[in-house]
Amino acid sequence: ASNLPYITGEITGLRAWMPHWISNLKDDPYFVPIPFVVLIVLIPILAVAWRRSSADDRRVTRDAWWILLPTLVSLVAWFVVAPEPRYATSAFWTLVALVGSQALAMSERRMSEATIRRVVAAAFLLGVSPLVVNPLVDWRVGGSIGNPLKAVVRSNMRIPPVGEWYQPAATHAKLHPFTTRSGLVLNQPEQRCWDAALPCTPNPAPNLRLRVPGHIERGFAVDGGWQMQDWPYKWRPDFLAAWRQGKRKE
Can you give the pTM of this predicted structure? Predict the structure, then answer.
């Protein structure tokens, strides 16, 4: 099922993903654009630090480069399987942290205390910048209505109503019974199951049954082929048919 994420209607392959992927980059600049830009800035700094460092400095930092292996593998797998920007945020920021920390480790002996403080301050500002940048992005996308400073404050300060300071948000599913051909009654939510009683699924299958009648703890089985309804989402009823059509073309 490696082609599964690459299907949008009748379009298959990277052509189905790339326009959507590029347009999604603007949703949150901290997913890909900002770490990518920071990485581009850090790479020449690392190159200079590497050239000026001693053999001992390089030996101390050598083992940390092993982090590159799983990070790059995860990025390749991400791009091949499901290149949604938000799925790779941790990998991109891992590269930023690795390159930045390596450059600092190789240069620390030659840096003054004032320079080190500036580097720490810059890293701190980068870390807290989403508290300001993301609200301003949302404010801009929303039509720049109102005061931008108030938009930042509202985004970061949520004051719950009186009496609800320590109470978790209560979200309950709206359920409808779904009876399979075996007589098994499933709870089908309008959206998600949340804390609904088991068995619950938004994608019931009429051929679903209990492996051992009367014993839900023994698991489930299906009689026949795939019959899940509204899979994977109610708003994508064409997904399975498009995926099967793509497999037939291979």
Answer: 0.56
